[in-house]
Amino acid sequence: MIQIEKILDYAIEKDASDIHFICGIKPMLRIIRDLVEVEDADVLAPEDMNEIYDYLIRGNIDKDNVFQKTKKLDTFLEYADKRFRVNISLSEEIPLFTLRIIKNELPKFEDLGVPDVVRRITFQPQGLMLVTGKTNSGKTTTLNALINEINETQNKKILTLESPVEFKHHSKKSVIVQKEVGVGGDSLSYSDGVKNSLREDCDIVVVGEIRDKETMDAAIETAESGHLVIGTLHTKSCAETIDRMINFYDISDQPTVKYLISSLLKLVISQRLLKGKDGKLVLVPEVMVVDNIVAGLIRKDKISVSEIEDAIQSNLEKGSIGLINSIAELFVDEKITLEQAKAQIEEKNIETLNRTIMQLRIKKNKN
């Protein structure tokens, strides 16, 4: 019999970010990017997986029906004063489980390594702001730290739409309403939740994930009607984010959408997490502040990734930060190795990276 809570306790003690229960191997923990097996646990058998399923579902018929129908389920678990984001899926008709441990204490915004221009944009009365990155790039942490910063410094009504709700905020200077999205939640879909926010007298709407045209439509409409919308997208760069937003739409609708995006989008931050030389995770941000030049590029018939990257690079005085600059600065500050720095960019940009490193070193020596 598997001792589930013993493994949960061990994961918390080791400060793991994720727990993996997969049939045929021992439980695995992700600790600072590395997968580490729980050595004194047994190899998981099919009956163990069923036991874990019962433990996580806890007799909830609605959740069980969703899983049986869709063969996947996103839910949460509360244990030992911790919240766990839970994903259940199937492999060879046997359930498998991925649990993300949610920190009780959010890091301070200034300690994350997120550029201050991101915080400053939240003072905009309306528009669209996006936090992007691949899975496990720290988007949720950045988003919640940003919400907390607004909560402590601004007098706003903030509505969050999440699946599931991870960090529970408490109203401070702002009023915060958090809604869970999904079957049995507070809103059936992100798009429904965003549309209904127009009737809820919100100042800021936070969309946990923009993953379809309907949610993008609702986010644009809400921003256009005088709200600040902060959302996340699974993209790997600022330029790719623009491309993804436009490609939600049919070609015939894209000219209109480009115009709306170019006028409403205020900022995109695309982030990555690397394991630093000291063994801790280091944030690598790319920031695009949307000025007249970037807006003009968005409206063009064909989006050029290289042109957008050049515009970011030439807009540093307004707060934009190019990926190469971020990587070079981390290397010069001895937070990552040169091999790590080069691995984050295309081969054609290696010379630019080397040149940027030299410039930063000269500047640092002068100071």
Q: Report the span from N to C terminus.
A: 62 Å
H/E element sequence = HEEEHHEEEHEHEEHEHEHHEEHHHHH
Task: Report helical residue fraction.
Answer: 25-40%
Shape: globular
The average pLDDT score comes to: 93
Unreliable sequence segments: none
Figure out the total of helices.
14
Strand percentage, roughly? 15-25%
Characterize the biggest β-sheet: 7 strands, mixed
Computed CA radius of gyration, to the nearest angstrom? 22 Å
The total count of strands amounts to 13
Structural class: alpha/beta
Strand order, largest beta sheet: 9-8-10-11-7-12-13
Describe this structure in words.
The chain has helices at 4-13, 46-57, 61-70, 116-121, 139-153, 190-197, 213-224, 238-247, 254-264, 292-299, 305-313, 323-332, 338-343, 350-366; strands spanning 18-21, 28-31, 34-37, 73-79, 82-91, 94-102, 127-132, 157-162, 175-180, 204-207, 228-233, 265-275, 281-289. The protein is globular, with a radius of gyration of 22 Å. By secondary structure, it is α/β, with parallel strands linked by helices. Helix 9 (254-264) runs antiparallel to helix 10 and helix 12 (323-332) crosses helix 14 (350-366). The strands form two sheets. It has a seven-stranded mixed β-sheet with strand order 9-8-10-11-7-12-13, sandwiched between helices. Strands 3-2-1-6-5-4 form a six-stranded antiparallel β-sheet.
